[in-house]
Amino acid sequence: MKLKKSVKKILILILFCIILIFSGVKLIKYIIYVNSDTYKLINRGYKENEVKLFLEKLDKKKIESLEKSKKNDYLYNLLNQKYFLMKNLDKYEKYLNENPDESYKNVVAIINTKANYNWYNKKQTKNSDTSKGNLILVNKFNNLDKNYEPSKLKKISIQYAYYDNFIKEEVKNAYEEMAKNAKEKNLKLIASSSYRDYNSQQILYNRYIVQKGTKEANNVSAKAGYSEHQTGLAIDILTDNITMSEFENTDEFKWLKENSYKYGFILRYPKNKTNITGYAYEPWHYRYVGKKVAQEIYKEKITFDEYYAFYIDNK
User: At what angle do helices 48-57 and 60-68 cross, to 10 degrees?
Assistant: First the structure.
């Protein structure tokens, strides 16, 4: 009888210990949880999916900052942008605070391409990386030396161009194939301007200043050294009896818009992208980047500036 009572006491003691251990484990887990970043962020008002993304992408310093500050209502949306770059996070946030009505997509694009600075900003301007070949970036922040001249310049056939238009050989071959295929559809493409050296660009830019004033000249033309035409990769394309301002309304433009990427060309200065490219919409200006990149830019509906910042300069 006494043995049975002893066994019973032992069993009760074991059960008590198990309960105590189990409770202790739960308590420890709870203490760990309430001291975790997850708990602290949720306690700040963030949702579980937001917390998960923060913990995946942000460093410890930024996490701790979020835990101590007022709920950030836009960080999650910034992190979800396709072209988000972690190195630019502080700049995104600063720009968004100063421009609260700007879309997250535009904020990322503007900061990535440095379009938040004044065009030709001396502190941001640098020499173009000519080692990038067909993917060289020339814009209002990346310039070429006045003596730069691309290799293997070839004259474009007068069948598809006005007289004395020269371009890089690879571009010439791609353009003539494109123009030939367009002709088979009763469309006539004419290269009106292609390679221009530094001095030619200087003359053109100065002419625009005289005609339109400096502000408007900067909107429609590049300073010498900052023009894509000096790379030997850009072609202004028109058709018969049409001015530049009328080209958008032609069948040739409609065909180019949907097919030029197949030959390695992109519409370099698209509509509604002036804040990124620095130039007014130019339906006639096409830039050769090669078939693979042209297809990606066409599919993603971005400018070359955005592509370069994310896929090339970010490597």
Answer: 140
Tally the residues of the chain: 315
Q: Which CATH number fits domain 126-312: 3.30.1380.10, 2.40.440.10, 3.90.1150.10, 2.130.10.10?
A: 3.30.1380.10
Three-class SS state of 81: coil
What is residue 241's three-state secondary structure?
Answer: coil
Report pTM: 0.87
Q: Please state the domain extents for the chain.
A: 1-34, 36-71, 74-112, 126-312
Q: CB neighbours of 308 closer than 8 A, spacing ≥ 6? A: 135, 137
Rounded CA gap, 215 and 280, in Å?
12
For residue 132, what is the DSSP state?
G
Q: Tens of pLDDT along 155-198?
A: 999 999 998 999 999 999 999 999 999 999 999 999 999 999 99
CA angle at 41 for the pair 35 and 46, rounded to the nearest 5°:
155
- pLDDT tens figures, 95-111: 999 999 999 999 999 99
- Is residue 147 pLDDT above 90, yes or no? yes
CA distance 223 to 151: 22
Rounded to whole angstroms, the Cα distance separating 128 from 135 reads 10
In the numeric block, the tokens 């850009």 are attached to 234
Q: Give the pLDDT confidence score for residue 205 in this predicted structure.
A: 94
